[in-house]
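DM from R.C. (forwarded with permission)

"hey, sorry to bug you on a friday — could you get me a structure for this? deadline for the figure draft is monday and I only need the backbone to look sensible"
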Amino acid sequence: MNLDIKYYLSVLLRRLPLIIVITSLFAAVSISVALMLPAVYKSEARLLVESARVSGELADTTVDLAVDQQLQIVEQRLMTRSNLLAIAREFNAVPDLNDKLADEIVEDMRAATSVRRSGGRNQATFMSVGFEAQSPTIAAAVTDRMVSLVLRESVEYRTDRAVETLAFFEQEVEQLAKQLDDASLRILEFKGANQDSLPDTLEFRMTQQAQLQERMTAAQGDLVTLAEDRRRLLRYFESTGGVTGQTTPAVAREVQELANVRRELEQALTVFSEQNPRVRLLRARVEQLESEVAGLAPTEDTEDPKSQAEVLLDLQLEEIDAQIRKTETRVIALEKGIQEIQVTLDKTPQTTIALDVLLRDYNNTNEQYNAAIERLSAAQTGERIEVLSKGERITVVEQPSTPTTPSSPNRPLIAGGGTILGFLAALCIVLILELANRTVRRPADLTVNLGITPLATLPFVRTRRDIVLRRAMIGSVLVAIVCGVPALLFAVHTFYMPLDLLVDKIMTEAGI
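My reply, with the result:
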């Protein structure tokens, strides 16, 4: 398709006043806005997260959060509503502070505050805190206060976390110590109530039972021997009419008295010890009678020999019977002791099981207590590290300074961008107007629409008066735009609402 360049250039020239008016309108608005927008100054500080000064191989801190998580927590604490309101009211950091609600102040503070984090694997972690204000002094002061809050929040967070960890393990150790004492007391009470059946004395009781069994066996053998001696003495008396070891009546009396004293001594020994005066007296009497019996010489027998033999027989039988009774008593006592030990032996398995349960609980509690002691020691070390600021900490690499040049707005960009936008808008409007105009304006339109070919075309010739009027109208419009639009914007900015706030309000209501 052949393009009629000359025609399009003529259209462009014909629409040039409209393009100039629209472009001028946009340029006036953008230049006015760029000039009227207040200067915004930004102060920024740079922070560094330093690693712990104490090696983790020697002593580790109890604050084990990742650096990014710690910075996020610090940032959230910094941007709390209370902090922002306090800073805004202290430094008058927001324009028209007294005319705004608390929510609007907080929103403006958050919009003016910038917090950025940078870092990566095997890289240092940095944090930048900045604030924008219409006064460079306010921007620097607010940034400095925010840096102080960041440092304070970081130290308080790490210290509070270490202190809470230490308090938890101190409470844990105290509780486990109480449980350990209770378990020890239960074991002690159980052993006191079952001291005769404890597994620790099992071997001793078995040995004691075996010894008692041997002594009872020996005593039973003594009973058999004494019974046999008694029968043999009776058989000898029945067959011979005499007894073995027959003596004189004087000797018999001494023997009788000796037997009586011996019985008294044996009875006393069942009640008193060897050091008792009565026992010592009886033992001395026995020794005296034994020496007297041994020193007596036999005398003439003035009595019947048969009566003397019977007396001696009775004495010897009585002495044997006394030994038999004593041995039987000892056998009964041994049997009772063996039975009592057997009862404790039968009870030992049950006691062992119950004691094992108590000991298992004690050992488990003791292991938990020892582990808690180790963790408490680590918590104490970690708390000490944080209190002395020897762990990870945030330091200021670059202090906030008072800016000398505004960071925004970018006035050339706003003015130039608005002018270019106006020129493009004018071209679009011209294009739309030309596409919407279906009238015949050139010979080619006659041929296409009517099917005829014109012989010649006559241009529209404007008079000098028409040209002057057209130019005066265009100039008037341009002057009105160039002067009126800035004046209107200035009036709105001065008497109604600053343009930046008005733009923010419009964008907020539009949901942008």
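R.C.: lifesaver. The two ends are 44 Å apart (CA to CA).
me: no worries. The mean pLDDT is 78.
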